[in-house]
């Protein structure tokens, strides 16, 4: 199978899947190694960018997904007129920021930084799938540890936590969180 056909197959799989597909699953579906699939994905990403196609290839952790090119979104929205997505409240954004930069963290860690209770914000972020439980801290009471999800990466259009803006000196460092 030639490179163009392989790229086309991967593009078709990702288009139909809709959600991020684990790299290992893609490689397995095409009887390829992980490194061979990485090369195919790199070629597909470059092709989409070079040709300014309507779709672009995104990586979220170990998942791969197609999405529309950002500059074409207004035209798609004009046609589909989507229901406005409810934005995150200020409290939820603050809570999410603490979790993103300091994960895994407990509610007590978040409350120490924010200075207010965070039960509602944490539950809201869990319901939206932006955070998840990542185990329990080995201390008295074994509090739940929270961290971000791949949905968090997709929501903010980043591929990994390394792409978060640099953290400024502030209350997080002062509190040692």
Secondary-structure blueprint:
Layout: H1 3-17, E1 21-22, H2 23-29, H3 34-50, E2 55-60, E3 63-68, H4 73-80, H5 90-102, H6 107-114, H7 119-127, E4 131-136, E5 144-148, H8 150-156, H9 171-175
Antiparallel strand pairs: 1-3, 2-3, 4-5
Describe this structure in words.
By secondary structure, this protein is of the alpha+beta class. Helix content is 50%, strand content 14%. Helix 2 crosses helix 3. The radius of gyration is 20 Å and the shape is globular. The mean pLDDT is 87.
* Percent strand: 5-15%
Low-confidence stretches: none
Envelope shape: globular
The average pLDDT score comes to: 87
Largest sheet: 3 strands, antiparallel
| Category from helices, strands and their pairing | alpha+beta
- How large, in whole angstroms, is the Cα Rg? 20 Å
Total count of strands: 5
Summarize this, please?
The protein is of the alpha+beta class and 177 residues long.
Keywords:
177 residues, alpha+beta, 3-stranded antiparallel beta sheet, two-stranded antiparallel ribbon, 50% helix, 14% strand
